[in-house]
Fold these 2 entries.
Entry 1:
Amino acid sequence: MNLILFGPPGAGKGTQSALLVERLKMRQISTGDLFREAMNKQTALGKRAKEFVDAGKLVPDEIVIGMVDEVLEKLNGQSFILDGFPRTVPQAEALAALLLRRSLSIGRVVFLEVPRVELLSRLSGRRVCTKCGAVYHVESKPAKIQGVCDVCGGEVVQRKDDRESVIRIRLEEYDQSTAPVKDFYKKAGRSVEIDGTGDTEAVFSRIRSQGV
Ligand code: ADP
Ligand code: ADP
Ligand code: ZN
């Protein structure tokens, strides 16, 4: 079954995706990760996306949609999780067309619900591995050796856009452009709201209990 994991910045989309990849062998399609990878490699896509990502703004729809379509093209039948896409109503509409064209479908749209105060503490304490993308938190999930990834030994750092001034802009972008996507999927059916608080295993069980 293919999934959309939907939620504000810091809701736990990346964390839950990693569990789904590890345990259910699903394929994670994280548009944020794809942009960061392109930015690291300084590809043409990365150069176009950088000014938006660094400022906490959404990357223009046509760039994101083209990038996702390229990934869908290479899936080879593996079940996938869309993590961080779609983030605007036009992206959701474009996705519907892309899926139809490739005879793919989404089984569930999972909304991860987390109160705003907790989002702020999750985002400001988030740390990520620059090499493998593993996600940590200074309090709830610290790396065993500070600054070093448990998984691959890579360097663990704070994302540039996880600084407080940029977090504020990202949450505004969510309220303005992304929250309306919820109603889009509520009307379409197949969406479920999941409590995203409590430990990550509890959240994972709640997702699994939706037939995932
Ligand atoms: P998103 O991909 O939705 O932005 P992440 O999965 O990167 O969110 O999580 C944001 C931060 O919150 C990370 O530092 C992560 O370790 C932490 N986190 C994720 N899930 C939980 C949870 N259930 N409880 C506490 N902290 C969490
Ligand atoms: P978060 O942890 O806030 O959910 P992501 O890693 O998903 O962050 O995204 C980081 C940044 O990448 C976003 O602030 C935005 O600039 C860009 N981005 C990711 N996905 C999209 C998308 N679907 N549409 C537009 N911009 C996106
Ligand atoms: Zn790593």
Entry 2:
Amino acid sequence: MEIVGEPMAEKVTVSVIKADVGSVCGHTRPHPSMIKECDRILKDGVKQGILQDYYVTRVGDDINLFMTHYKGEDNRDVHELAWNAFYEAARIARKMHLYGAGQDLLADSFSGNIKGAGPGSAEISFEERKSEPMMFFMADKTEPSAYSLPLSRIFMDPFTTTGLVIDVRAKKGFDFEIHDVMNRKKTVMSAPEESWNILSLLGDTSRYAIKRVFSRAGIGTVAVVSTDKLNFTAGRYVGKDDPVCVVRAQSGLPSVGEYLQPFMNTMLVAGWMRGSHYGAFFPCSPERSDPTYFDGPPRICCLGFQLCDGKLQGLEPADPTPGMHKPIDYFAGSEWNFARMNAIKASRFIRSHGPFMPAILGPEEMEYTSKPEVLKELEKRLEDLD
Ligand code: F6R
Ligand code: MG
Ligand code: MG
């Protein structure tokens, strides 16, 4: 017997794909003509009916493509569009002899999925609610586990998210998909019941990272992080992962303000300078995301849009015009000067240790190291201790 029920609503997918394909003056900022070229290609993707809407932005030396569509995650056409945008931007970078031109494009050509080809991706699919506030966090000079501390606070700490106590849907808790990025394993754990076990894993930022967060009140996937490890994919040091994190907010989920709250506290993240140092997260506008002090400190930006029938509704223009909407820029304002000042203070402090731990990462995490060479040179001079 055929069961006739409510028709399933079509799921919208928000895909953020990012890559560093070259920048002006070292690892600082992509040339505006590269951004323009990405914009042209994604606009064409809307015309072809692949995308509903898009937004092109950057953090430091990384170009970030926000794309909305109804084609689901891992869609060939969507990934190919992103690949083509980065490919053409890299071509411009090469012509200008920009630094690191084509750096994150590890494959010679597109072969069906952007995963494993270099760029990082975070994709989230869900039934669009009547009103759907979305926030896009973008980081530079750091790695996916940099989001573990703020997301733990947001989804597990009632002293950060009061909604975990006083909002009946948020109070049902959240499930975490946690990845062991080294061994390529994953598991799902539930908060609040397993909070301390979750933290026992996530505290090891060298190995574990949050990939997805799910509502236990039936709202679906709430957050997704790009956990691609560029250097594992390449098998050598290429550049930092510089991850993105896309989240849905409000109405049974953390509010916009609760998502922002942890970033007022200064936190150290790994990946600064040669992917080998700790530095403090510096919250800022994409406009202020040029790494200007010791190639950093690691930047974190946050942009906000509403979804409107699969399109990105920002501040202007009033009507939905694909590619034309301007987001809210959360970390642009002077109230974040306090966090920025503390980030510089903390970064200066840790810098004062120079090439000593804990300024540099542990030996297994250093992305640049001369130690094997030094040890080889010393081979004949090494003696046993008494
Ligand atoms: C790149 C980055 C930089 C570089 C550093 C050395 O995103 O984080 O700190 O790692 O400038 O770069 P190379 O080896 O290219 O001279
Ligand atoms: Mg770079
Ligand atoms: Mg970068």
